[in-house]
# Entry
Amino acid sequence: MDMADWEKQARQQQKKYRRLLEKGDRNKMLQRLPKLHEQAFAEVDCLKCARCCRNYSPRFKQPDIKRIAKVLRVKEGELISRYLRLDEDGDFVTRSSPCPFIREDNTCSIYEDRPSDCARYPYTDEDVLLKRVQLTLKNATICPATFLVLERLLEVLPQR
# Structure
């Protein structure tokens, strides 16, 4: 697959992806996700990309905040006031992009204790891919692995 302009292709394929995710055979898709996820991440090096960390914020849930504050040896309130803000959905997200925890070499300073959203991103091996269509469509333009999984789903599953 030509990855040279994957971002452009992902934007052009949005309608096809939506139709696939909304009308495709959910069981067949779920069955294929683990292998497609594995294949995509064999091709995509997250440390070279880091588009998610540079352009996107995960939700920081209360257990994440508690864990990260402990690791950073700060009070939860200080972690929130220094790094986070409430978004329009009432979730804590980073105040700015790129993520304040990403280093120059694209590694994460809190990797072992990162938010669960980071650990699970881009959800290409979970039913979240099918349940949260808008999120998946957005992720297809941010994460090349999501793009690859969706493209391969289109290849292996006949469209109605």
In short: Residues 59-120 form one domain.
